[in-house]
Input
Amino acid sequence: MKNKVALVTGAGQGIGRAIALRLAKDGFAVAVADFNQETARKVADEIAHTGRKAVAVTVDVSNREQFFAAVEKARTALGGFDVIVNNAGVAPTTLIEEITPEIVDKVYGVNVKGVIWGMQAAIKAFKAEGHGGKIINASSQAGHVGNPELAVYSSSKFAVRGLTQTAARDLAHLGITVNGYCPGIVKTPMWEEIDRQVSEAAGKPLGYGTAEFAKNITLGRLSEPEDVAACVAFLAGPDSDYMTGQSLLIDGGMVF
Ligand code: NAI
Output
């Protein structure tokens, strides 16, 4: 991947961080994009210490102008633009009766609009570079089956799969492929927070992170962020050149 440039959103922690580190290991120069300036800088420094090029970019993906500016900054700083990973996401838990306009705006703003703005900004950058590229979008196993207390989140992840399929058809003539990934239950701050919120609502610890819960997963364990990053590395590299419109499940066998 020498001389290739990738931008990963939500790369300050969790799955995004693992993707950024993995793509750097595979040879990409990486733009570490996150809402959180401090964590983005930390991950960019981590990459720079390995001898790869990296830049930290602060962005709220739900803001179209900011997203275009972030991609342009990455392109200028790293000297090209080849891959975008629209990974940033939010997942507040709510019962259906308690969904508020604010929750819908927030979740759809980041998870759905953020993917649309990211795809648009990437298309502009690919065109400016005079070549195609790869767009990779984060969906979820919750984008395949409704997850309890996560109606807004689950529906936003169904939407991402729809966007991925449609964009794949719309963008093929530009040499752009569009694929996605659907993690299962990954040990990240997001999952810890869901576990905390759902347990709090139930008035008792539900132990979603325990070995007992992992028995519900075919492979018998929760996912590490690196399990997801390996799949994204495949989607970002040349071995997936003949794939488009797919959203790969990496969930240890939860949905099939
Ligand atoms: P996380 O909450 O641990 O990390 C998300 C990162 O995104 C944070 O660094 C945060 O600052 C950043 N972020 C949030 N809002 C942002 C915004 N508006 N603009 C820019 N950055 C923003 O989440 P995690 O677990 O790493 O998830 C990453 C992606 O994978 C998300 O799209 C999530 O929905 C998806 N996913 C996660 C699963 C899990 O079990 N952890 C399962 C299935 C999908």
User: Anything to note?
Assistant: The beta strands are 5-9, 29-34, 54-58, 83-86, 133-138, 176-183, 247-250. The pocket of NAI is lined by residues 9-10, 12-16, 34-36, 39, 59-62, 87-91, 110, 138, 140, 183, 185-186, 188-191 (CB under 6 Å). Helices lie at 14-25, 37-49, 64-78, 101-129, 151-171, 189-202, 211-214, 225-236. The chain has a mean pLDDT of 95.
